[in-house]
């Protein structure tokens, strides 16, 4: 189009690109005779394919492994975001482990019986009960929570450990 005498603005509108991109492409074409990107553009890789496989294998063998542990074991100076990116490419995400098992029919029956036994309580009876939740308040930056590397859909069918917090009556 440029050799046919079109303006940069007209070419940019035709190919739906910015004028700057068209101008740079035209300059490279006139200078080098090619429009291809230069090889080796971008930052150099810090890890080899073998080290990439090692990072992935560590997360699959021990889902609770931390990025700093992986980095120390691989022995390459990489930032934690690089490890997360390599694991994300393998469809692994860092997730919290689930806290409770799904309720069984027996647990549901016991819970229903507990509620039915207290259905006739009045306000004064309810005021005698201390309700508490298990909320966590983190004042620092690290909540010391164990995280796991998992693929989507591996919440319950994974052999990874989980934590059970059920009331004593339901166990």
From TrEMBL:
**Which superkingdom, per the lineage?**
Eukaryota
Residue ranges for the region (Disordered) are 32-51
Q: Which stretches make up the Transposase Tc1-like domain?
A: 52-117
Gene Ontology MF terms in the entry = DNA binding
One example of a Gene Ontology biological process annotation? DNA transposition
Q: What is this protein called?
A: Transposable element Tc1 transposase
Question: Which organism encodes this protein?
Answer: Trichonephila clavipes (Golden silk orbweaver)
Protein encoded by which gene: tc1a_547
